[in-house]
């Protein structure tokens, strides 16, 4: 048996989803964004919503998300993705509407929009990529930066006396009455990627069933901003980030599988 | 007795050499190409020990850029001998 006997279309187990096009992604090597993009493309394909999905991309590293997934996109002003998604979903209730935001966009400049959209129970899904840093602009301190974590704007480590405490927006979201599904996942291992996929799928289905708003936080790495190799960044995330941002479902009133 | 034989195809010009797939592979199939770069100037991965592949797709699932295609075939060991 040679390799050529195995490599044929009927033996295909896994390949890049069709919705993800061949444009080379601008993300740094090992960035978690690519995995989450792939999961979203796979889920939309599995749900058969290719022609009926509108994504809202943020300002931040994922600003070019619209170049990589062949669905309809809108580009929101910084932090205003949930407000834009609210308008799209209210005008087009049969569309699957989701926002894709980082922690600088969602937890800092867009805190008000995020909390109010979630509290109103808009039927949208919010994907929240939390890497504890402003990745695109050069690794500055974000509201989600861990205590003691060194960044370019807090080179001696985050000090709560001076910089305040990390903002846990997912926990806040779980206390709001408008949310139906709030979950925190990661994409560092095969098992966690499959769990994250389930969580995003549930959020999308809940939004299509009109059960309320959902938030899925993906605890991610920023190996360029953290000044680590991709493998070391995953290790650092497991060691430090998971203590502050504990994984799991924080709220689930959907009764979906 | 039957066994799984797998094979992977790496889109080397899309690969950025983050090497997360190298860690994810439990069979030691993949490793970074030695002293070689692709058209974008990135190092890239290659299946160095393709015979060990069982087609579990772990490498492809963790790949952030979707560079890896995985194929798997169930074969009878007796037939092979």
- Biggest chain-to-chain interface with counts: A-B, 34 and 34 residues
Q: Tell me, what is the CATH class of chain A?
A: Alpha Beta
**How far is it from the N-terminal to the C-terminal residue of chain B, by CA?**
12 Å
| Count of distinct strands of chain B | 4
- Rg of chain A over CA atoms, rounded to whole Å, is 18 Å
* Intertermini distance of chain A: 41 Å
Query: What share of the residues of chain A does DSSP label as strand, in percent?
Result: 15-25%
Strand content of chain B: 35-45%
Total domains of chain B: 1
Strand numbers in spatial order across the main sheet of chain A: 3-2-4-5-7-6-8
Please identify the top-level CATH class of chain B: Alpha Beta
Based on secondary structure, the structural category of chain A is alpha/beta
Task: Name the overall outline of chain B.
Answer: elongated
At CATH level 3, the topology of chain A is Rossmann fold
Helical stretch count of chain B?
3
Write the layout of secondary structure elements.
The complex is a heterodimer of chains A (257) and B (81).
Chain A: H1 3-6, E1 12-14, H2 32-47, E2 53-57, E3 72-75, H3 81-91, E4 96-102, H4 103-109, H5 111-120, E5 125-130, H6 160-163, H7 169-174, E6 179-186, H8 190-209, E7 213-219, H9 223-226, H10 230-244, E8 248-252
Parallel strand pairs in A: 2-3, 2-4, 4-5, 5-7, 6-7
Antiparallel strand pairs in A: 6-8
Helix pairs in contact in A: 2-8, 3-5, 4-5
Chain B: E1 2-10, H1 20-24, E2 30-37, E3 43-47, H2 58-62, E4 68-76, H3 77-80
Antiparallel strand pairs in B: 1-4, 2-3
